[in-house]
Design a protein that fits this description.
It is built from six helices and twelve strands. By secondary structure, the protein is of the alpha+beta class. The protein binds coenzyme A. Coenzyme A is lined by residues 97, 159-161, 166-172, 194, 198, 200-201, 203-204, 207.
């Protein structure tokens, strides 16, 4: 859906975007950088309803799982709109799936720092509820429109599904919604960070077309020809605004 936009970053007001052509390796010049900042700030300043209307109209649809067993509604929230119960459900899900990976990484497990990041005013959430379980959050994806190494991007911070909700196409669906938001917001690429210890998630992202980003830390060559992979990699996928889904599609 959102592939093949090598070398284009599009910026300007949400309603009348201007196209700026830049190579993915060529840094934007001063004027382009200023426009990129203004563009991202204007998107992040939009109210939750403006954001949903402009960048996420496809959420009116319900998603049916690959096995046809469940109809799932995906809901969009700004971090500031999450109830404490939903916020804590997301945090607990993240802790459940990823505590061990954080603990054994150079970053370590720092719950308060993680909660502060999750509450960032520009963070937005896609929530999936389990109606068989009183509407409790069963999966979520958090993302932010931001600037990385001078380029406008949509950054996927977290994606976590409860074990009973995996391998039925839901993770892919959530990633496609985010990529579609990125296409509509006219950013150059979708980005994420994954622990190299999480080979399943890495396989999932590669299956979706993500590759090592040019700014990802490189493996280090140690003595005796041994190569050490960093404990995380940054992955990305180029986005093309013309690949945005048709409204409601
Ligand atoms: C990783 C995760 C988000 C994937 O979501 P999911 O709903 O299980 O994946 P999907 O069913 O949508 O799979 C989408 C595609 O990726 C493929 N895929 C899924 N896991 C894969 C893996 N480990 N290796 C290779 N391909 C994989 C599927 O086969 C499917 O391919 P297809 O569309 O060609 O049939 C989910 O398993 C999860 O929440 N894991 C625990 C939390 C976690 O590790 N999060 C990532 C933190 S960085």
């Amino acid at each position: 859906m959102c592939e093949g936009m090598e070398g284009h970053s599009l910026v300007a007001s949400a309603d009348a975007p201007t196209v700026i052509h830049t190579s993915s390796r060529k840094r934007p010049n001063y004027d382009e950088t200023r426009d990129i900042h203004a563009h991202i700030e204007s998107i992040n300043a939009s109210s939750p309803s403006q954001f949903a209307h402009r960048y996420c109209p496809q959420l009116r649809n319900t998603f049916t799982t690959k096995d046809g067993n469940a109809d799932i509604d995906v809901e969009l929230y700004a971090a500031s709109e999450l109830s404490s119960a939903d916020f804590m459900a997301c945090f607990q899900l993240l802790k459940h799936t990823s505590f061990a990976a954080y603990k054994s990484s150079s970053r370590g497990w720092r719950p308060e720092a993680k909660k502060a990041e999750m509450r960032d005013e520009d963070m937005r959430y896609l929530l999936v509820r389990r109606f068989s379980n009183d509407g409790a959050v069963g999966a979520f994806l958090s993302f932010m429109l931001t600037i990385e190494d001078d380029f406008p991007v949509i950054y996927v911070y977290e994606i976590h599904l409860a074990s009973g909700m995996r391998r039925c196409g839901l993770g892919k669906r959530l990633m496609h919604i985010v990529e579609d938001i990125g296409c509509r917001a006219r950013v150059a690429k979708a980005m994420l960070t994954v622990f190299t210890s999480n080979s399943r998630a890495e396989g999932f992202y590669r299956n979706l077309g993500y590759t090592d980003d040019e700014f990802s830390p490189r493996p280090r060559k140690l003595r005796r020809g041994v190569t050490k992979r960093p404990d995380y990699i940054i992955m990305s996928k180029s986005l093309n605004p013309s690949d945005a889904l048709l409204e409601g599609g």
